Amino acid sequence: MRVKCVICDNIESIPDFSPEAKKLRNRPIHTFMCQSCNQRIEEKTKARIDSGNFRLYRSVTKDDEW
């Protein structure tokens, strides 16, 4: 299966029967990101976390006794 990275428009091929290919075929909302873009975003996110300027807003969940 040929896929296109949403960030750099690089075209790659992935195995047709891989879980990622199935996810892309069945749910068009999911997008493909190449390994180099994924790694670059991961490094920049870790740098932002280390700098202290990164806040992860999570929803507050109440513990139910039942």
Biggest beta-sheet profile: 2 strands, antiparallel
Portion of residues within helices: 25-40%
Rg from C-alpha positions?
17 Å
Shape estimate: flat
> What number of structural domains do the residues give?
1
Distance between the termini: 47 Å
| Element-by-element helix/strand order | EEHH
Could you name the ranges where pLDDT drops below 50 across 5 or more consecutive residues? Answer: none
Question: Beta-strand percentage?
Answer: 5-15%
Instruction: Please state how the strands of the largest beta sheet are arranged side by side.
Output: 1-2
How many β-strands, per DSSP? 2
How many helices in DSSP terms? 2
Structural category is mainly alpha
- Global mean pLDDT: 87
Describe this structure in words.
The protein has helices at 19-26, 35-51, and strands spanning 2-4, 11-13. The protein has one domain (2-51). The model has no long low-confidence stretch (mean pLDDT 87). Helix content is 38%, strand content 9%. The chain is built from two helices and two strands. The chain is mostly helical and 66 residues long. It has a two-stranded antiparallel ribbon with strand order 1-2. It is flat, with a radius of gyration of 17 Å. The N and C termini lie far apart (47 Å).
